[in-house]
Amino acid sequence: MYRLIRPLLFRLGAERAHALVFGGLVACEGLLARSYAPGAWTHPALAQRVWDVSFPNPVGLAAGFDKDARAPHLWPLLGFGFAELGTVTAQPQPGNPLPRLFRLPADHALINRLGFNNAGADAVARRMSRLLAARPRIPLGINIGKSRVTALADAAGDYVHSFRMLAPFASYIVINVSSPNTPGLRDLQTEEQLAALLAALMRENAVFAHQHSRAALPLLIKVAPDLADDGLAQIVRVAQTGGAAGLVATNTTIRRDGLHTPTNEAGGLSGAPLRDRATAVIRRLRQLAGPALPIIGVGGIFTPADAYAKVRAGATLVQLYTAMIFEGPRLARRIAGGLVELLQRDGFAHISEAVGKDA
Fold it and tell me: What residues of the chain score a pLDDT lower than 50?
């Protein structure tokens, strides 16, 4: 059905089409729930405990699709084993001027310069408090970023406020310092800046754990694909010494290598052109960090083979977003089922045995 309606959607602006599809999925949530069949996307070979959190399968929704946590219960119905909501900032903000989302169909890619458009941490926390009276069937990560109006010197307080508001609803928190669409944000990836930001969030995390008599939340750092080797090494060093629980690799890229579509649009490129670079970054991070620091692999995953390549490069979990625009909402189920077949083909009884085999 999606292949039939996709040409009609692609006649619309990309952001309008996204809103229509998302709204349609939300409207159909009750119908999807009645036909919910977890056996279609779970398998003993795929279930894992990571950071003491149970993931029924390793295929997650990447940040950016559900920025305001409008549909936390929807994603398991589409076959996702976890979902990352956001990016959420401390201050509500409209994002960059329209148009700001562009399809490159010949490249199976998107360019976005959305600019962290979201309702703000306080509003998202109120919504999640209401929607999560019954917990979803899958873990929920929350991705937090810096408000555009906040100076870099004050970034730590901005992130801490978002953490304080959203931590009660999260299975893990991602520190987004790698989007190319907020001026100066990527400067927070430098060793000194990132170490200070992580330290501030770790202190707040300890307070949260004490107040709620529970373990601290896993804090992950989202990495840009455009960093050179020394930049990746710095991030791994900060993560290991500062107590981060893992990495998300990668965010969108500012590079335009090898595109078939001529474009001068600014913003972050995602989709198939990012596939190989993201996999290479995952492999290098695994080499630098060793096996103890879990990595969520994201970038250019369209098929089970794409996801499996990232697992073998070193990813414990994977995420997708852009591919759903081109392949439709059943993609997560197809990838989960295909991963089982690939593991069986290579003689692995469990996905953990394949993690990092090519690193």
Answer: none
